[in-house]
Amino acid sequence: MTTVEQTSSVRPARRAAVTNPGHGDIFTDHMFSMLWSPAEGWHQPEFGQLQNLSIHPGMIGLHYGQVAFEGLKAHRRADGSMVVFRPREHARRFQTSTSRLAMPELPTDIFMSAVNQLVAADQEWLSDHPAHSLYLRPLMFATDESLMLRPSENYRFLLMAFVAGGFFGDRVDTVSVLISRDYCRAIPGGTGNVKVAGNYAPSFVAQRQAQEAGCHQVVWLDAIERRWVEEMGGMNLFFVRSTGTGNEVVTPQLTGSLLPGVTRDALLTMAERLGYRTREERISVEQWRQECAEGTISEVFACGTAAVVTPVGTVRDPAGGDWTVGDGLPGPVTMTLRRTLMDLHHGLARDTEGWLHPVPTEQ
Ligand code: COI
């Protein structure tokens, strides 16, 4: 396997240059690549410079969407070391996603080795800014040159990285959401519960509608009854209910059409540890509106690798008007969970669950 050393002379310039990274535009220097074929299985691992690919225009992945990906993050701890948040869970979900598209599974040890190499080589892209991280993007796609409608026989796995700031900017502010009444994201038996490229392009028109309505994001309802809240564009949702006996943190249950978020799962555990009751249950859009009016639902937030924990302040429903969540500002439970998660990422809290993978510095 080829490894490419990064020279120390470029490091300070890179770190200084990345003051406002946004999300997805500032790629780091390297990538990992590996091929799969029926005869050789996983073979030809290569680690080298990030570079353009040469592909056949009739590649199956391009035409029929046999493409799956993941998203996970590496963080810098206060002591300067790098950690990756729950990479093995992301490797497992990647296996579930690729299997759903009749693609081979990438063994977890290959996934981990690629993550270790890339983070070790490109860590100097990351500044000490608490809202910045290295976002790692594993990708697998079908490479057969054929337009026959069949699964490819050959595949390529890539791992690349970009410097990520906050998905909605580096300041924490509430976001506004539009309930999508024209489109739905996932159907029972479809691919809503896996991370495949084909789930994302169809969301763009709904996302555009949200922006035209003055909202940051779209909220998806279930495809059958069109009333059960499922996800927010590419993120899971949580509701905070104030009850007589304390706060309850509620998230839509995984019915098979929602993505089982790794951050969602972590927040359920963290909320319990913080003394909040947690529930996974169906929540209808009528309930959301009514419980906000009554003051029972006092906070709502989105979560995900990209979103971390992002408070939702206002809701626009073309079928039912607009409403505000709580006072429209980031709420205390949301901010406590956000702080707890970010402290864990940055080594300021004890990793009681073993969720942080320390990246070996020598590869
Ligand atoms: C992530 O949170 O990592 C995602 O993949 C969603 C992103 C594409 C918005």
How would you portray this structure in words?
It catalyses: L-isoleucine + 2-oxoglutarate = (S)-3-methyl-2-oxopentanoate + L-glutamate; L-valine + 2-oxoglutarate = 3-methyl-2-oxobutanoate + L-glutamate; L-leucine + 2-oxoglutarate = 4-methyl-2-oxopentanoate + L-glutamate. With 363 residues, this protein is of the alpha+beta class. The chain folds into 2 domains: 161 residues, Aminotransferase class 4, branched-chain amino acid transferase, N-terminal domain (D-amino Acid Aminotransferase, Chain A, domain 1, 2-Layer Sandwich), CATH 3.30.470.10; 171 residues, D-amino Acid Aminotransferase, subunit A, domain 2 (D-amino Acid Aminotransferase, Chain A, domain 2). The chain has 8 helices and 18 strands. The strands form 2 sheets. Strands 1, 2, 3, 4, 5, 6, 7, 8 and 18 form a 9-stranded antiparallel sheet that branches. Strands 9, 10, 11, 12, 13, 14, 15, 16 and 17 form a 9-stranded mixed sheet that branches. β16 and β17 form a beta hairpin. It is globular, with a radius of gyration of 21 Å. Bound molecules: 2-OXO-4-methylpentanoic acid. The site of 2-OXO-4-methylpentanoic acid has 5 residues, from loops.
